[in-house]
Amino acid sequence: MLQRPPTQGSVPPRRARALTRLLMAPLLLAPLLAVALPEAGWLRPAQAQANPGSGAPPQRRVGVWLTNSPSPLYYRADRIEKAVAELHQAGFTTLYPNVWSRGTTFHRSRWAPLEPALAQADAGLDPICRLTRAAQRRGLEVIPWFEYGLMEPADAAIVREQPDWVLQKQDGSTAYPLHGRTMVWLNPAHPGVRERFIGLILEIVQRCGVDGIQLDDHFAWPVELGYDATSRRLYREATGQEPPSDIHDRFWMRWRRQQLTDLLRQLRAALGQLDDQRGRAAISKGKPRPPATLVSLSPGPFRFAYNRWLQDWELWSVGGLVDELIIQNYAYSVKGFAKDLDQPALVKASGWGIPVEIGILAGFGGRTTDMVTLAEKARLAASRGHGVIYFYWEGLWGLHAGREGGSYRQSAFRQLHRELERLPLPPPTPQR
């Protein structure tokens, strides 16, 4: 999350319209999505912006990512309760807790092992469900963040047990150094990988009653990968040809991008079916139908995501496969931050009818953004109609509060968010 990516690019409007048609055609034909598309809450974020007084989520999100690394938050119930209470008092509306990291989960799962430190501290603590209950009691939304997406540690049990699930480079290697560890990527085109990935997500939605889920820049297919036996076979079946040696061959890239899109489509269908079941159960008990499960995406800049990670988040956004975009903007200076807000792809995204939030670095490791700078950045984002999501919890007024100290920053965030509440929304950006 912390590396500052290259400058965003944009896709011409004509291409965007063509991509929309390409995506929506299979959506309308796919039997699975016949369940998902009619959901009453499908457009919940956009509706919330149009009807801020209707009891729906607020006009602009004020959110924060919460993780276990480095943070002691997840390992004691009193810390969780205290953190949620403080965030509520400081004007936060949405929490994005990390639930999937380094091949482990933060609850007992049928799909993956429990995070070792949590197992040692208190295997029954269930921090995500506990945090969700504490937040929803106070009117906050909780959207668990599947940080590691399709990545697994190279020594994970699932990698040893299912070697055919792992993507390969042309030389047959699988190792992918990232975040100080040797990782591998699971194949988003493999049926077993899809079942497990969707199962991990449905599990937390069912268990904790969360408001949505979030994918990020690790929901991806690195461009140099795809030469394993499974990918080769599927590509031959689809095209009659072997994958080309040029990793940037446009047809080869397009086929791999489509596998990610298909997986996201299957996830939306599965969430739609689950939402429908939950809705019927609620109605049978005389309760109101709950909103549809929101799908949030926090990608890198478009050109980088499109060409490096094979993420076509413009297609996903205009095609209705994601409900919210959070664009990471970790420029250190206010001037650089403002420049990144004006990038063409981000400006255009504001006209797609879904909320577009901005990820802002509050503090991490030895880097803490002072409150004056943070406030200027938050005001700039809000003036363009964006919500703000801070990275990360300990950078607010915790471990990485810096020289200003936790008490001062906590008070300053409260004042800042009251100010943001009073700012009017700008008129919608017209779609071209």
Description:
Residues 2-58 have low confidence and may be disordered. The chain has helices at residues 13-29, 33-36, 44-50, 77-89, 116-122, 127-137, 157-161, 191-208, 229-239, 250-284, 302-308, 313-318, 334-341, 344-349, 371-383, 394-397, 406-422, and strands at residues 62-66, 94-97, 100-101, 104-105, 141-142, 151-153, 176-178, 181-185, 212-216, 294-298, 324-328, 356-361, 363-364, 367-368, 388-391. Helix 8 packs parallel to helix 10 (250-284), helix 13 packs parallel to helix 15 and helix 15 packs parallel to helix 17 (406-422). The chain has a domain at 1-41 and 149-325. It has 432 residues and is an alpha/beta fold. The longest helix is centred in the middle third of the chain and has 35 residues, at 250-284. Strand 1, helix 4 and strand 2 form a beta-alpha-beta unit. Strands 5-2-1-15-12-11-10-9 form an 8-stranded parallel beta sheet. A 3-stranded antiparallel beta sheet has the order 6-8-7, with no helix packed on it. A two-stranded antiparallel ribbon has the order 3-4.
